[in-house]
Design goal:
Layout: E1 2-5, E2 12-15, H1 19-40, H2 43-54, E3 59-63, H3 66-80, E4 85-89, H4 90-93, E5 106-110, H5 120-128, E6 133-137, H6 143-147, E7 150-153, H7 169-189, H8 193-199, H9 203-209, H10 212-215, E8 224-226, H11 231-241, E9 245-249, E10 255-260, H12 261-266, H13 276-279, E11 281-282, E12 286-288, H14 293-303, E13 307-312, E14 315-324, H15 325-328
Parallel strand pairs: 3-4, 3-5, 5-6, 6-7, 8-9, 12-13
Antiparallel strand pairs: 1-2, 9-10, 10-11, 13-14
Helix pairs in contact: 1-7, 2-7, 3-7
């Protein structure tokens, strides 16, 4: 480890020459800052949640530079958890975009120092139209803090970069504060998993939260055999279905068993004489239409099976579809 002198800073700062030591030092510094932040939350945080819940229109998040990047993420998290929000660049606001801010909105302003000049027109506009401001800021004597309706103060701690200049620790705390605010508001709002699924229809999250019947094609023919079906018919259905299983039904069409590749191997010596009922595994696992995919996958993993049958909620004996574990993995 070496040291380097920086003009304007007292003393020399440590410089880690290897990447691992440098990276670990940054992470530990930011982790300590987050611990301080968690312990510093006070009644102002609760008031901020109350303000977000009472906002009639949108929560408009703003900031400049690295705080602006953090603000974009905070806005996205608010919107994804049930609080209508968008990001407004403070620099663009003074050149006509202030028209996006209306009475009934609230402002969430991110600025470590609170002295950022580009914020001043926006702060003045908010005062003029009585738009409340939540400030994520460290300096209580700053213009932003003085204008704020609610202050979410960041602990004053050094940045993690050797020069103590590049926003690192401060942005980590701002991001964590925004996440905490969004999730606390979501919990107070009573947002359900169903609502989250509606807001996250794409990607891996959407796949996990989607109802099983949106992932599986219920119009696809199922491999069904009667209880007295011979092995030739069972093997044909298993092969044509492409799932490696066949559902065994009784004369009324009720599901009474399942035959897998493993069942066939175990009954190989009976293949010329056995009927479906002789080698099936009774009481196959079923899930109702509408069950979330992640719950279905958890059930399959817990039971150590690769296939489940989908049924109507009112009758777990009437299969309407079949899901293989490979169908559920994005």
């Amino acid at each position: 480890m070496a040291t380097v002198d920086h003009p304007g800073l007292a003393g020399a700062l440590p410089i880690h020459r290897d990447g691992i030591s440098s990276g670990r030092a940054v992470i530990l510094k930011e982790a300590e800052a987050l611990r301080l932040l968690a312990n510093s939350l006070d009644d102002g945080f609760e008031r901020a949640v109350d303000l977000l819940l009472s906002t009639e229109r949108r929560v408009i998040v703003t900031g400049v530079g690295k705080s602006g990047h953090i603000g974009r993420k905070i806005s996205a998290t608010l919107a994804a958890t049930g609080t209508a929000s968008f990001f407004l660049h403070a620099g663009e606001a003074a050149h006509g975009d202030l028209g996006m801010v209306m009475p009934g909105d609230s402002l969430l302003v991110v600025s470590n120092s609170g002295f950022t000049r580009e914020l001043r027109p926006l702060i003045g506009y908010a005062r003029r139209f009585d738009i409340p401001i939540i400030a994520i800021v460290s300096q209580l004597h700053s213009p932003l803090a003085r204008a704020a309706t609610v202050i979410l103060r960041l602990p004053q701690t050094a940045e993690a970069c050797p020069a103590r200049i590049a926003p690192t620790t401060s942005t980590a705390m701002s991001l964590a504060m925004g996440d905490a605010l969004a999730i606390a508001t979501m919990n107070r709002r009573g947002v359900t998993r169903t609502e989250l699924a509606i807001w996250h229809p794409g990607g891996e999250i959407g796949s996990r939260l989607a109802p099983i019947d949106e992932i599986i094609d219920l119009d696809e023919p199922m491999p069904l055999v009667r209880a007295d079906a011979p092995m030739r018919e069972v093997v044909f259905e298993m092969t044509s279905g492409g799932k490696g299983v066949a559902a065994v039904i009784d004369d009324d069409g009720a599901l009474i068993g399942v035959i897998t590749d493993g069942d066939l191997r175990r009954a190989f010596d009976q293949v010329l004489t056995a009927r479906a009922r002789d080698i099936m595994t009774p009481h196959p696992v079923t899930v109702p239409r509408g069950a979330p995919v992640e719950e279905v996958m958890a059930l399959m993993n817990a039971r150590k099976i690769t296939v489940v049958f989908i049924t109507e909620p009112a009758d777990s004996t009437r299969p309407i579809g079949i899901a293989h574990i490979h169908d559920l993995v994005p």
